[in-house]
Automatic annotation (TrEMBL):
This is 4-coumarate--CoA ligase. Residues 1-23 are annotated as: Disordered. Pfam families: AMP-binding, AMP-binding_C. Residues 71-426 form the AMP-dependent synthetase/ligase domain. Keywords: ATP-binding, Ligase, Membrane, Nucleotide-binding, Transmembrane, Transmembrane helix. Belongs to the ATP-dependent AMP-binding enzyme family. The keyword Protein biosynthesis does not apply. The lineage of its organism: Eukaryota, Viridiplantae, Streptophyta, Embryophyta, Tracheophyta. One of its GO terms (molecular function) is ATP binding.
Length: 570
């Protein structure tokens, strides 16, 4: 995709006998395409200048003059330390200079970032992107083996790690610096580089095109195996401008946001790590989510806006009334990363009638964006929906059996097209071809329908991923771990609905003859090899795993069996 395109061209069919798309739904019956009906104002138009990089765009939106050092960008909830927009601007330049001159990081080199949320996270991202290097972020909860896989797959030349996570990177052999100074002083740190002598050197102009790769973020995608999602500067620049647009319709200039969404995730990185910096708001950072700390932050810093996930909304509904906390400042809560049920949405509105609740939908492969409720009136009227297509987006609803596009109110797979759609899966032509068709349409793997007003409803996931607390858990990965156990002959992993976390992974296991392997032993075996959010939470023992003639696991049969067993117990 070239940097000159505002969005990829939409194919049109020659049949002109049918009416064009309706004013309310955006559906074109000639092409089967749903169009976003929102036109961007001039100030939010997507830049077409080809030699523009993400860091340059973000930094150009910063306050200037005295206001730059007066306006706080981030506050660390645990330490109360803060950083202004002016400090981020200077620190990003100093770090970029140090990376270029001191560590010889060049355009196209991959920098691996392993850290929880911190007030330095955005500085690191901006420094890496400004010199044309490629950013790849990782979950601090990941194990050594998971970290090693990503370091190897991404081809990282340098790693930047929080001190507590350093032990996971040492075995990889990748050169590593720390985010903050260590007590033994053995490792160089970002803080030292920012404060060092390199800041006085001039940073040479590095020609970066919008078509160049900016980031590689890891997602289980639509086929269940962890893959590197390659995002270009054009992808990120587009989503930055769309976030500015969404802030215009859902936030005030002096709003205070709360960030517990991890910045390594597409949701947190695009929203807090980069996007909100274009708006000039203040964000209170939490290193990790904790319900009580969240309530303290809302009251202490008069938080107005919380981009959240369904489990957090569930916790607010279930526990907030039991806690004495002033939440009168709260005006808006967003929901993303996983579906929010109609019932939970309605309960939230009953408990917090003055707080707007707006759901959205997106994928790592679409830079985290696709649909959004620009109006709280629409959001309240359609509690089970996830909004309308945001500007620059088009969609198709494809019949799973026939492959034909469907009109409003018909269920099919959601396909998306926009300038935010990823370039490819890193080094995986087969997965890329299976996910993006020859015309640039992203096949989301989600079953949906779009109504006569252009509102999108996600019905269920066609793909087999499990959504636990907003994280994606691939059954295939857990099955691989299970099958490595000497006493497990066969295994399958399925999602089980859970009120608090959305879904939990449940394993069905075929034990070796004569084995007395227990549920707890299986759970502990898996827990020792994967991140906490991927842990198997329930185990069922079975004589054989149901499979098709082609050998594919019949997960629906197992899901039905798990539901039957649950009902029987009741």
């Amino acid at each position: 995709m070239s940097g000159e395109e505002i969005w990829p061209p939409i194919e049109e069919e020659s049949n002109t006998s049918m009416p064009p798309f309706g004013n309310s739904s955006g559906y074109n019956s000639r092409t089967g395409i749903y169009h976003s009906l929102v036109k961007l104002e001039t100030k939010h138009e997507i830049p077409t200048k080809p030699d523009l990089n993400t860091a340059s765009l973000v930094l150009s939106q910063f306050p200037t003059g005295e206001l730059a050092d007066a306006r706080i960008a981030f506050i660390d909830l645990s330490t109360n330390h803060s950083i202004t927009y002016g400090e981020i601007h200077r620190s990003a330049y100093s770090l970029a200079t140090a990376l270029f001159h001191g560590l010889e990081i060049r355009k196209g080199d991959v920098v691996f970032l392993l850290s929880p949320n911190s007030i330095l996270y955005s500085t690191i991202c901006l420094a890496v992107l400004s010199i044309g290097a490629i950013l790849t972020t990782a979950n601090p909860l990941n194990t050594k083996s998971e970290i090693a896989k990503q370091v190897h797959d991404s081809g990282a030349k340098l790693a930047i790690s929080a001190p507590d996570e350093l032990h996971k990177l040492v075995p990889t052999g990748v050169p590593t610096i720390l985010t903050s100074s260590s007590s033994d002083g053995k490792f160089l740190s970002v803080e030292e580089l920012i404060e060092g002598c390199y800041g006085s050197q001039e940073l040479p102009h590095v020609p970066v095109e919008q078509s160049d790769t900016a980031a590689i973020l890891y997602s289980s995608g639509t086929t269940g195996v962890s893959k590197g999602v390659v995002l270009t500067h054009a992808n990120l620049i587009t989503i930055m401008k769309l976030l500015c647009w969404s802030a215009d319709v859902s936030a005030a200039q002096h709003d205070v946001f709360l960030a517990f969404i991890p910045m390594f995730h597409i949701y947190g990185l695009m929203f807090f790590g980069l996007g909100l910096l274009c708006v000039g708001v203040t964000t209170v950072l939490m290193q990790k989510y904790d319900f009580q700390s969240m309530l303290v932050a809302i009251e202490k810093y008069k938080v107005n806006n919380i981009p959240a996930v369904p489990p957090v909304i569930h916790a607010l509904v279930k526990h907030a009334s039991k806690n004495r906390c002033d939440m009168s400042s709260l005006r808006r809560v967003g929901s993303g990363a996983a579906p929010l049920s109609k019932e939970m949405s309605q309960e939230f509105r009953k408990m917090f009638p003055s707080v707007e609740l707006r759901s959205g939908y997106g994928l790592t492969e679409s830079c985290g964006g696709a649909t959004f409720f620009g109006s709280d009136k629409d959001a309240e009227a359609h509690p089970e929906a996830c909004g309308k297509l945001i500007p620059t987006f088009c969609a198709k609803v494809i019949d799973i059996e026939t492959g034909k596009p469907l009109p409003p109110h018909k269920e099919g797979e959601l396909w998306l097209k926009s300038a935010t759609i990823m370039k490819e899966y890193l080094g995986n032509v087969e997965a890329t071809t299976a996910t993006i068709d020859s015309d640039g349409w992203l096949k989301t793997g989600d079953l949906c329908y779009i109504d006569e007003n252009g509102i999108v409803y996600i019905v269920e996931r066609i793909k087999e991923l499990i959504k636990h607390n907003g994280y994606q858990v691939a059954p295939a990965e857990l099955e691989s771990v299970l099958l490595s156990h000497p006493l497990i002959v066969d295994a399958a992993v399925i999602p089980v609905e859970d009120e608090e976390t959305g879904q939990i992974p449940m394993a069905y296991v075929v034990r070796a003859a004569g084995s007395e392997l227990s549920e707890d032993q299986v759970i502990q075996f898996v827990a020792g090899q994967v991140a906490p959010y991927k842990k198997v939470r329930k185990v069922g023992f079975i004589d054989s795993i149901p499979r098709s003639a082609a050998g594919k696991i019949l997960r629906k049969d197992l899901v039905a069996q798990s539901k039957y067993q649950l009902v029987s117990k009741l």
